[in-house]
Structures are given as C-alpha cells and as structure tokens.
Design a protein that fits this description.
Layout lengths: L2 H15 L8 H11 L4 H13 L4 H44 L3 H30 L2 H7 L2 H4 L2 H17 L3 H14 L3
Helix pairs in contact: 1-4, 3-4, 8-9
C-alpha cells in the first residue's frame, strides 16, 4: 500500500471515530505514532502547540502537520482530506434523514451518551500532553530520583498560565504569546 493511501486511511479512521473535536483526535494520534513510527510522542506535543497557536481547527491542523512531515505538501493535503471526509459523509447522511428521526428517543439517548465519550477522549489527550510536558521520564530513568521526574520549569509555567487565566481572563493568544516568550528565554 502506498504511503499516501495509508495516510488517507489512517486519518479517515481517525475522522470517523474521534468524536468531540480536535483534541479528541489525540488518542488516535498517539496510537498511530506507536504503530507507524511516522512521528514521536514529543512531536505530538509540538503539533498541539503549533495547532493551538495557528488559525483553524486543531484536529485538521494536526492532521496536516502529520501529513506534511510524513509526505510533504501532498501528504498534508491527503491527511487533511482523509480526516474531513467522514464528517462530510456523515453530515450529508444525517441531513437526509434527520427530520425522520428528530424526535426519536433512541437518537436522543445516543447523542447524550456521546458526551461522556468525548470527555474521556479529551481527558486522555490532556493527560498525555501533561505527561510529555510536565514530566521528565528520561531523567528519572537515568537517576531514579523522584525530584528528577518533574519538569519544574514547565510545572511553574503551567501553574502561572492557569493562575493568569483565572485571575485576568485574557484572550488565549495572550497566554500563548507569553508561554512562547518564556520558552525562548528560559530554553524550555
């Protein structure tokens, strides 16, 4: 199977089953990384940072990023189309039959049950990102010191950003900019 077709299929599956938005694609990206070796877990942290800092939906930005690092511009297009196709197909089907099932108790319960599934996918993604950015498992493996397990600079940055969000409630781009500057200055 060609790499382009494999990219399309992988992201088609992700688009089909990642219910809950862009961050819900993260568990699929982690699994894809482990299975294909196209990118590392640290690359996923970079994808999240770039995807959050650039315009557009996070999931699409990450699919484009993976496609681009895997197969260049063509790969970016293929992976993005693969991710979006299931949604387009499903929306077309739903629009054709929605009126027929609008008052269905079963459909209502199904959509209600998708909420906790989406929450679990997003929480899983959040925990994965926290592990990569706040823990230093490589240093811990070398030293076996519990203190070396934690990336203290990043934990302080995370706490500072959380406090800033709660206290000042500024636009997210402000916090992204602050984090970028701090990352450059303190070599995070």
């Amino acid at each position: 199977m060609s790499l382009a077709l494999q990219l399309f299929i992988e992201f088609f599956k992700t688009g089909l089953f990642a219910v809950g938005g862009g961050l819900a694609t993260l568990p699929f990206l982690y699994e894809m990384s482990a299975r294909t070796g196209w990118y590392t877990a640290h690359d996923i942290a970079d994808m999240i940072a770039i995807s959050e800092a650039t315009p557009g939906p996070v999931g699409i930005n990450m699919a484009t990023y993976v496609g681009y690092i895997t197969l260049g511009v063509f790969g970016g297009l293929i992976s993005t189309i693969g991710l979006v196709c299931p949604s387009v197909i499903i929306i077309i089907i739903i629009s054709k039959v929605l009126d027929k099932f609008r008052d269905s108790v079963i459909v209502s319960r199904m959509f209600y049950a998708l909420r906790p599934a989406s929450t679990a996918l997003i929480a899983s993604a959040g925990l994965g990102v926290a592990k990569i950015s706040l823990l230093n498992t490589e240093a811990y493996a070398q030293t076996a010191s519990v203190l070396s397990l934690f990336n203290w600079k990043c934990i302080l940055l995370c706490a500072g950003i959380l406090a800033g969000i709660k206290i000042f409630n500024k636009h997210p781009i402000v916090y992204i900019g602050i984090a970028a500057v701090i990352g450059i200055v303190f070599k995070l």
